[in-house]
Amino acid sequence: MGKTLFDKIWDRHVITTVPDGPTQLYIDRHYCHEVTSPQAFQGLRNRKLRFLRPEKTYAIPDHNIPTVDQDKAIQDPVSRKQVDTLQENAREFGISYFGLGHPKNGVIHVVGPETGLTLPGMTIVCGDSHTSTHGALGAVAFGIGTSEVEMVMAAQSILQAKPKTMCIKVEGKLRPGVGAKDMALYIIAQMTTGGATGYFVEYAGEAVRALSMEGRLTLCNLSIEMGARGGMIAPDQTTFDYIKGREFAPAGAAWEQALEEWKMLYSDEDAVFDKEVQFKAEDIEPMITYGTNPGMGMGITESIPPLESIDPAGRISFGKALDYMGFKAGESLQGKKIDYVFLGSCTNGRIEDFRAFTQFVHGRQKAPEVVAWLVPGSKAVEQQCREEGLTEILEQAGFVLRQPGCSACLAMNDDKIPAGKYAVSTSNRNFEGRQGPGARTILAGPLVAAAAAITGRITDPRTC
């Protein structure tokens, strides 16, 4: 019997298996940020340990950093302490550090792929749930807890129960105006936020293969929002073209050798998944969320489900979510006034997202009542926006490009949506208070965000 892509990579990294217990899995790449790492570093000190392989870890502050005036001291004392602590820990333990002002600073899940640090066939971990992003390049990538971060630092391996496998196929072609974010939100709405719990998902099908690498990164990024341990896509020519020539990617003879190995990374025809699900691309339209988890999503032309269509066990939480959002069951959200627009995060902070947003707003003007935060996912994206003339076009339309960081995705920095205000956000979570205490978040893709920024309301980008 053949193997799935996940099984091929997992099996190659098994060090040992505990009888009736977890697997000790070797880790190729460890990403480290300022929020989940301090206790892990202190744990090493307490046990008088060093990193086993410090060259495998890359540290980047992203959650707490400001997105303006990055040349000045961080004003918030808690944020400043966390960022300074990561820098000190990186220096003490001899790991690579891309701090504020560094040309490779940015959101860790954007920087990894764009620098070539993330490669097919790798096992990749980070103390952050959206590590699943890196699976887009054909890697087994997943988030870990702080105690596990310490384990990877000390042993370059981790104890991990092997998850089940799921294949989600999206066949057909996406309609105009529909992108990877819409595909992801559609799948989560269909699967629910717990529909992939216990599984590692491989995305396949015509519509998935047609996605750009940036689109694939967006899709895999959101895998965690339906409960999956991670998501991945088999590497192909799109993957190889994206990687080639990047700073940390193999070159010369090493590139040719790596390419031959990567071409074997696919699920065999006779591979058996624990579960298979299939969707039709033509059923997907621009998506928005109406509630307080990413599974509460719908097509932009649809209405919020009526209460009687909700399973009785979920009606209380459904009603609570609508009360928080100020919405009613059965209503349409088109034309609903919004206050903020956020373009960015590890979900939609890549150059392709800024190109799409900029193309839409070109020749138009931002609605004067809308506050728009356009935050590149990295210094490289920020630079590309300038070089391609996107920054100038955005400024002409009334927008200001901010500096890289996680920004309003989770409001651990100064970019917080005020209580009661509505934000159309290209980030990944819409939990209560996620973008600030009392903030109301409507998740969407770059085009829906652009349309909202121009009109000041929730608007179908295909009609304006």
What is the secondary structure topology, with strand pairs?
Layout: H1 5-12, E1 14-17, E2 23-26, E3 29-32, H2 38-46, E4 57-59, H3 77-93, E5 96-97, H4 108-115, E6 123-126, E7 140-143, H5 146-155, E8 157-160, E9 164-171, H6 180-191, E10 199-204, H7 206-209, H8 213-221, E11 230-232, H9 237-243, H10 253-262, E12 275-280, E13 287-289, E14 297-299, H11 315-325, E15 340-343, H12 345-348, H13 351-361, E16 371-374, H14 379-387, H15 390-396, E17 422-425, E18 440-443, H16 446-455
Parallel strand pairs: 3-4, 3-6, 4-5, 6-7, 9-10, 9-12, 10-11, 15-16, 15-17, 17-18
Antiparallel strand pairs: 1-2, 2-8, 13-14
Helix pairs in contact: 2-5, 6-8, 13-16
Write structural notes for this entry.
With 464 residues, this protein is of the alpha/beta class. It has 16 helices and 18 strands. It has two domains: 5-275, Aconitase, domain 3, CATH 3.30.499.10; 287-463, Aconitase, domain 3, CATH 3.30.499.10. It has helices at residues 5-12, 38-46, 77-93, 108-115, 146-155, 180-191, 206-209, 213-221, 237-243, 253-262, 315-325, 345-348, 351-361, 379-387, 390-396, 446-455, and strands spanning 14-17, 23-26, 29-32, 57-59, 96-97, 123-126, 140-143, 157-160, 164-171, 199-204, 230-232, 275-280, 287-289, 297-299, 340-343, 371-374, 422-425, 440-443. Helix 2 (38-46) crosses helix 5 (146-155). The protein is globular. The protein starts with a helix and ends in a 9-residue tail after the last helix.
User: How would you sum up the major sheet?
Assistant: 5 strands, parallel
Instruction: Decide which structural class fits the backbone.
Output: alpha/beta
What characteristic shape results from the CA principal axes?
A: globular
Give the CATH class of the largest domain: Alpha Beta
Strand content: 15-25%
Do you know the CATH architecture of the largest domain? 2-Layer Sandwich
CATH superfamily of the largest domain: Aconitase, domain 3
Q: If helices are DSSP runs of H or I spanning 4 or more residues, what is the number of helices?
A: 16
What ranges have pLDDT less than 50 throughout 5 or more consecutive residues? none
Number of DSSP E strands: 18
Strand order, largest beta sheet? 5-4-3-6-7
Rg, nearest Å: 21 Å
What number of domains? 2
Rounded mean pLDDT score: 97
Helicity, as a percent range: 25-40%
Remind me, CATH topology of the largest domain? Aconitase, domain 3
Question: Ends: how far apart?
Answer: 52 Å
